[in-house]
Specification:
globular; disordered C terminus; 13 helices; 345 residues; Phosphorylase Kinase, domain 1; 6-stranded antiparallel sheet; Transferase(Phosphotransferase), domain 1; 16% strand; single chain; alpha+beta; 2 domains
């Protein structure tokens, strides 16, 4: 096969495919600018057949523009929304990281769980990002009323810098318009839905906080909370299933954390934490979080080899000016089949 120029989208050279899902394909890309400017970014490229669906197209653009207004250290922001030449894609900063789902699975494969203090650090970061998003305003000071709708371990990135970040704000609402979602993907989404979202009722920020509660329970216990053989089983678990205390599955979890998880997972929104800030305050009181450097060390210990493979692949592609096609990176544990688990690298 003869070499071909690396595929380009405007000023972006696509280097490596990270993942592909029902809505988009995610790439690592090099942004090239004047005077030798360059940086790594992530491109989320919407599948072309979806661009032709007017309802999806308009909703995606609207939600992406809203997401671009959220600026916080614990949120992977949308830097640009580009529509040109029958292409529609988001540009996000490249963050060297793994998803929380990958970290949980990597720990499981080593016969361990993430220590509670480190879980608290990761979830505290995610809550700080969510709280900022829920309170976000537009350039005129009008409240945006952002609801993520798809908080899950796949959408929390744990960085090599020890900081955790929320990704994919505003995309879930547009994604609902896609009818090609697979059964397994839907089942995974249901596992983190609040009861009111599962019933397709109006949502507010408290739906996201329920999802964080489910993620917190999973990270502490080392296994998914709401599960079943099919979508109906998972839905019933969310709506009426028993919710064991995390300490019943992981004895090193203190009772104070059990209480926080229980309140976060209250099935009535009025009985939950009402804001991300309130949830965060009680979480950190229950168990003081570890330092970010401790999280960074855990990421390196459990996922360092896979991250180095990713670094080497990117370096090699940066050094070669031409290539044939776009190589696809093998998903890390816990990321297979997810279009968002590596959403920002």
């Amino acid at each position: 096969m003869t070499d071909e120029p690396a595929p380009r989208l405007g000023n972006y050279v696509l280097l490596l495919e990270l993942a592909s899902g029902g809505m988009a394909t995610v790439y690592v890309a090099r942004q090239a600018g004047a005077a030798g400017f360059e940086r790594l970014v992530v491109i989320k490229r919407v599948h072309r057949h979806l661009i032709k669906m007017r309802e999806f197209h308009d909703m995606f653009l609207d939600e992406a523009r809203v997401a671009s207004l959220i600026r916080h250290p614990n949120v992977v922001s949308v830097d640009d929304v580009v529509e040109a030449d029958d292409e529609l894609f988001l540009v996000l900063p490249y963050v060297e990281s793994v998803s929380l789902s990958t970290l949980i699975e990597a720990a499981r494969l080593q016969g361990e769980r993430i220590p509670p203090k480190l879980v608290v650090r990761i979830i505290a970061d995610a809550l700080a990002g969510l709280a900022a998003a829920h309170d976000a305003v537009d350039m005129r000071g009008e409240k945006l009323d952002v609801v993520h709708r798809d908080v899950s371990p796949h959408n929390i990135l744990v960085g090599t810098d020890g900081r955790s970040r929320i990704i994919d704000f505003g995309i879930a609402k547009a994604a609902k318009r896609i009818t090609t979602t697979t059964r397994d993907v839907m089942k995974g989404k249901l596992a983190y839905m609040s009861p009111e979202q599962a019933r397709q009722q109006p949502l507010d920020a408290r739906a996201d906080l329920f999802a964080v509660g489910a993620v917190l329970h999973e990270a502490l216990a080392g296994e998914q909370l709401f599960k079943g053989e099919d979508q109906a089983d998972v839905l019933l678990a969310v709506l009426i299933g028993d919710i064991p205390a995390p300490s019943a599955l992981a004895p090193d979890v203190p009772p104070e954390l059990d209480e926080v998880v229980s309140k976060a997972l209250a099935r009535e929104p009025e009985d939950r934490y009402q804001t991300g800030g309130d949830f965060l305050e009680h979480l950190e009181k229950a168990l003081p979080p570890a330092q970010g450097r401790d999280v960074a060390q855990l990421v390196e210990r459990l996922c360092g080899r896979d991250l180095e493979t990713r670094r080497a692949a990117v370096r090699e592609l940066l050094d070669q000016p031409r290539m044939s096609g776009i190589p696809r990176l093998t998903p890390l544990p816990g990321e297979a089949g997810s279009g968002s688990g590596s959403g920002s690298g």
